Amino acid sequence: MIFLKAFIVGGLICVIGQILIDKTKLTPARILVSYVIAGVILQIFGWYQKLVDFAGAGATIPLSGFGCTLAKGVKKAVEEDGFLGIFTGGLTAGAAGIAAAIIFGLIASIIFKPKSNS
């Protein structure tokens, strides 16, 4: 049942993004940034954590989950370090995911050779 919940919630998040791409003039980059901001805002009010508790990876893997992680990191760092935590918390919380993306991107660029468009 956990896999079904994750699939449905993650799928709905992706469907919303696809609808925004198809029906609006928003660029994919703006939609992705909107997802991160939405994740931060929903986490501030405590709503995103409820979605994570319900759907697990279906809510943490999309970019809105990254926004949630940033918000949690900032909150924790502010509690521990005060004002300086506003600037360091998000970076500390997201460091593992960002490092993994860079490393796997490097590995993919070594294994696969890009082709020119012309």
Task: Explain how this protein is built.
The protein is mainly α. It has one domain. Helices cover 83% and strands 0% of the residues. It contains six helices and no strands.
Keywords:
118 residues; 6 helices; 0% strand; globular; mainly alpha; 83% helix
Could you write a compact summary of the structure shown?
By secondary structure, the chain is mostly helical. The protein is 83% helix and 0% strand.
Q: Which of globular, elongated, flat, extended, rod-shaped describes the shape?
A: globular
- Poorly predicted regions: none
Radius of gyration, CA atoms, in whole angstroms:
17 Å
Range of strand content = under 5%
Helix and strand composition category: mainly alpha
Number of DSSP-assigned strands: 0
Number of domains: 1
List the helices and strands and how they pair.
Elements: H1 2-23, H2 28-44, H3 47-55, H4 57-60, H5 63-81, H6 85-111
Helix pairs in contact: 2-5, 5-6
